[in-house]
Write a structure and sequence with these properties.
This protein has 310 residues and is α+β, with helices and mostly antiparallel strands. The chain is 49% helix and 21% strand. The chain is built from 3 helices and 10 strands; from the N terminus they run ααββββββββββα. The longest helix is centred in the N-terminal third of the chain and has 133 residues. The protein starts with a helix and ends in a 10-residue tail after the last helix.
């Protein structure tokens, strides 16, 4: 009985051992299968990574090739452009002597035409001068002398206009050939009025301003413009050293009678920083010519108008 129990025990232990052995073998097979599967997944992943890297490398190579091709195209275009520009410059340089010769020929023709035109105008001016010198007047001027506006104005203004109405009673009157002295601050304005008698006839008006210790500007208007200014005047003398205004009777805006003058301080005394000191005087100079005599005779025999503006 004991032997039987030992045999059964032995058999049971053998079965347990075999069962354990089978279980271990099964576990080993499962582990081996798992390792094989993991290794396969790993190899598949590596293969996929290699394929992706190969695709990226191929794409990068294509991009580099495209960039290189584009750069080559740009280089070729730049070279072509430089060659074209150089060719244009060479062509223009080759045309320079031709253009110069053409311009010389054109200038020579214009010079000949201008010489002929000026010769004709000189003859016509000489005729007008002779009429003015011997007759004292000129009835008409050739159309070819239209580029001399002063001459036409001279002819049109042989009878001088008059402005005898004082439109600025507040302005300070200044007598001819007398000095008006004073001081003027920077930006300050002072108004004066001058009067040329109507009997004077054709003449020239001279206004002189002398300053010391600073500078001042003059703005002059005829009898229609009171209180002239920098923005609204007929004549002016501005800037350092510009201190005289001279008008002639053939100026379109010249008149006998009243003139209005504004003096404006433009610079203080450099030494003291005080106001500018000025001296103002004016006078007229009568025209001594055959024309003036004829105008004077015509003025004597011309009835005096009833209104103040002629």
């Amino acid at each position: 009985t004991r032997l039987t129990m030992l045999e059964e025990t032995h058999k049971e232990q053998v079965r347990v051992m075999e069962s354990r052995k089978e279980r271990l073998e099964h576990e080993n097979r499962v582990k081996a299968d798992r390792k094989k599967l993991a290794h396969k997944d790993w190899m598949d992943m590596l293969e996929k990574v290699k394929e992706e890297e190969a695709a990226q490398l191929l794409s990068a190579r294509q991009v580099v090739q495209e960039q290189e091709a584009y750069r080559q195209v740009r280089v070729e275009r730049a070279e072509t452009h430089r060659r074209n520009v150089l060719q244009i410059k060479l062509d223009a340089k080759a045309q320079v002597p031709v253009v110069i010769n053409q311009q010389k020929a054109k200038f020579k023709k214009e010079q000949i035409a201008d010489t002929s035109e000026w010769q004709l105008q000189l003859e016509q001016l000489s005729k007008v001068k002779d009429d003015l010198f011997w007759k004292g007047y000129a009835l008409e001027v050739p159309e070819s002398l239209t580029q001399f506006p002063a001459l036409f104005s001279f002819i049109r203004n042989q009878k001088v206009k008059s402005r005898l109405e004082d439109i600025d009673p507040a302005a300070t009157p200044v007598d001819p050939q007398s000095w008006a002295c004073g001081v003027i601050d920077l930006g300050q304005q002072m108004s004066f009025k001058l009067f040329i008698p109507r009997e004077v006839g054709q003449c020239s008006l001279i206004v002189e301003l002398r300053v010391s210790g600073g500078d001042a500007d003059m703005y002059l208007g005829n009898g229609d413009l009171a209180q002239p200014s920098k923005d609204n005047c007929h004549w002016s003398a501005v800037g350092w050293g510009n201190n005289k205004i001279t008008l002639h009777f053939f100026d379109p805006k010249f008149n006998l009678g009243f003139y209005y003058l504004t003096i404006q301080g433009s610079m203080l005394d450099r030494n003291t920083g005080g106001p500018c000191r000025y001296r103002l005087r004016w006078w007229w100079s009568e025209v001594k010519s055959a024309m003036a005599e004829v105008a004077s005779i015509a003025h004597i025999h011309t009835p005096t108008p009833t209104h103040t503006h002629t």
